[in-house]
Amino acid sequence: MASMRFLLSGSSGFRRGLVTAAPVVGAAAMGASSSPSRPSAAPAALCEMKGYTGRFGGTEKLETGARGTLENSALEASAGKSAARWSIHCERIEGVAKELFCLIGGLDPYISSVSNCSGPIMKAIKDKMDKTNWDSLWSQGHTMFSYGPEMSTDPTEAMTIKMFTFMKSPKRVLEIGMFTGYGAAAIVEALPADGECVSLDIDPFLQRWVGEVMSKFPEGKKHSVMVGPALESMAKLPANKKFDFVFVDANKSEYKRYVEVLLERDLLADGAMIAVDNTLYCGLPYMPAEYDTQPKRRGFGEDIKEFNAWLANHPKLMTVMLPIRDGVTLVRKR
Ligand SMILES: C[S@@+](CC[C@H](N)C(=O)[O-])C[C@H]1O[C@@H](n2cnc3c(N)ncnc32)[C@H](O)[C@@H]1O
C-alpha cells in the first residue's frame, strides 16, 4: 500500500506511538561512562556494552524542511481519505492511518505551539544548539561522544521542568547529565534569586559550550558545572548542602545507582523531588524485543525497565510516571 509510506517516516510525535522504519546503523561511538576514552570505531560486539554511547544512529530527526516535505507528500498522497470516507477496504485503512497520523503527529507541535514559558536563556541555548555542527565537532575530536540535538530535552519537556521548578521553589537543584544545558537553562530561569543549579556532565567540552551562553545572562551565575563521571562527582558533593530538586538524565544504565547514592549520602532535602528522564525509553521497557527496530538500544531499554520496577517496589520512595516525550518519572521519599 504505497500511500501508507508516510506511516514509516519521521515525526517525533508519531514515533511516540508506533515503531518507525528508520534505518538501523551502528552506534556512533562507545565509551564507558567511567572511562571517557574515545574509540574510533564501534565493532558490532561492543554495541552490547552498557556504557554511555552518545547519539544512536538511526534516531536523527530529519531536517525540518525534509520532514515537512515527506509528511506533506504523504498527506497529499492520501488526500480525500478520512476515517469516515471510504468505500473499499484499502481506502478505509488509508483513511484510518491518515487520521491516526494527524492525531499523533500533530500532538507535539500543537502542545509546543500553545506552551509559552520558555525564556531568554533557553532560547539562546536552543539557537546555539541548532546552529552547532555536532557531526563536525565529533569528527574533529572536540566532543567526547557523538551528539545530536535530539539528545537535549525538547521545548515541551524543558518547559515542564521549568514549571516543576517554579512549583517546587527549590534553593538547590542538581542536574545529572547536562548536554547543552537546555534543561539547566529552564531550571535557572525558574530559580529564585538566591537559588543555584549544579549540573554534572562527563564531557569538558560541554562545560565550556554551556558556560559561554550562561555568562551572557545575570541569572547564569546561578549555574555551575562539575565535570567528570556523575558517580564520581556525586561522591564529592558536600552532604551538608542538600538538594530540593534533582533532574536525572545521564547514563541510563546508572540511573538506579544515582538514586541510591542520593539516598545513601543523604543528599536530598526534606520533601525533595526527583524527576527522571527517558523512563519510557522509546517504549522498549514494555515492548517485546521482537519488535526492536533499533536493537542496539535494547541494553538501555532493559536497564530502564529494571530501574522502573525497582522504583515502583522501593519501600521508601513514591513515584509516578508521566508520558511526556520519552517518559518522565517523578519520585520523592515517603
Ligand atoms: C540526554 S543528555 C542530557 C540532556 C540534558 N539534561 C537536557 O536537559 O538537555 C545526557 C548527557 O549525559 C552525559 N553523560 C553520559 N554519561 C555520563 C556519566 N556517566 N556521567 C556524567 N555525565 C554523563 C552526556 O555527556 C550527555 O551530555
From TrEMBL:
Is Phosphoprotein among this UniProt entry's keywords?
no
Keywords in alphabetical order:
Methyltransferase, S-adenosyl-L-methionine, Transferase
Query: InterPro entries of this UniProt entry?
Result: Cation-dep_OMT, SAM-dependent_MTases_sf, SAM_O-MeTrfase
Q: Which domain of life is it from?
A: Eukaryota
User: Into which family does the record put it?
Assistant: Belongs to the class I-like SAM-binding methyltransferase superfamily. Cation-dependent O-methyltransferase family.
**Can you name this protein?**
Caffeoyl-CoA O-methyltransferase
